[in-house]
């Protein structure tokens, strides 16, 4: 239903940027992976638990779906659509007490012995199930760390690290794409 609504919105026909805070980032990633048209240019997530929350992720069917964890029936559309992004911007709050580990905002996770592991250590990345490896090898994944706590981003840091590089007309200067309306 969301894909249909977005596709029918005349204001989005040329494409759009998507910015999601917390779980909203997961929903927008699902939109990027499931909805082929119109395109999302830059997907920006802030404080989003891409690898779940420690102790709460095992029964999360939504997260398992968008992380393409069903190896017997993978959804290639999820990978195909995500690698269409110009940029995937992952913002982590340094003092985030709502997401454990906070590195989940960067697709990080705890390993078997509760050691902190990075995105590149995950099967999700190694198998390129949703296109993270492809995006990263193309320098299209950008990680940003903010000094705040969960979802409390400083306005000047947000403008400097998110808005100016990814959401202003300056972004479109050296691209062959036209600015979305």
Overview of the structural elements:
The chain is α/β, with parallel strands linked by helices. Helices cover 30% and strands 17% of the residues. It has a four-stranded parallel β-sheet with strand order 1-2-3-6, with helices on both faces. It has a two-stranded antiparallel ribbon with strand order 4-5. The longest helix has 12 residues. It is globular, with a radius of gyration of 16 Å. The mean pLDDT is 89.
Average pLDDT, rounded to a whole number, is 89
Structural shape: globular
Helix content: 25-40%
Number of strands: 6
Element-by-element helix/strand order: HEHEHHEEEHHEH
In order across it, which strands form the biggest sheet? 1-2-3-6
Spans of at least 5 consecutive residues with low confidence: none
Class inferred from helices and paired strands? alpha/beta
- Cα-atom Rg, whole angstroms? 16 Å
Please tally the helical runs, counting DSSP H or I stretches of 4 or more residues. 7
How far apart the termini lie comes to: 23 Å
Features:
alpha/beta, two-stranded antiparallel ribbon, 6 strands
Write the layout of secondary structure elements.
Layout: H1 2-8, E1 16-21, H2 23-34, E2 40-46, H3 61-66, H4 76-82, E3 87-93, E4 109-110, E5 116-117, H5 123-126, H6 132-137, E6 141-146, H7 155-166
Parallel strand pairs: 1-2, 2-3, 3-6
Antiparallel strand pairs: 4-5
Helix pairs in contact: 2-4
């Amino acid at each position: 239903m969301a894909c249909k609504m977005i596709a029918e919105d005349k204001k989005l026909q040329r494409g759009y940027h998507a910015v999601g805070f917390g779980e909203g980032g997961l929903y927008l990633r699902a939109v990027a992976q499931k909805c082929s048209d119109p395109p999302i240019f830059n997907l920006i997530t802030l404080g989003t638990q891409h690898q779940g929350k420690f102790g709460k992720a095992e029964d999360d069917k939504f997260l398992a779906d968008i992380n393409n964890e069903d190896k017997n029936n993978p959804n290639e559309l999820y990978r195909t659509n995500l690698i269409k992004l110009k940029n995937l911007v992952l913002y982590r709050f340094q003092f985030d007490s709502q997401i454990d580990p906070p590195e989940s905002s960067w697709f990080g996770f705890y390993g078997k012995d509760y050691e902190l592991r990075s995105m590149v250590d995950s099967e999700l990345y190694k198998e390129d199930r949703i296109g993270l490896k492809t995006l990263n090898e193309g320098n299209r994944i950008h990680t940003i760390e903010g000094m705040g706590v969960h979802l409390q981003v400083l306005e000047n840091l947000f403008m400097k690290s998110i808005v100016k590089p990814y959401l202003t007309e300056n972004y479109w200067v050296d691209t062959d794409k036209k600015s979305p309306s």
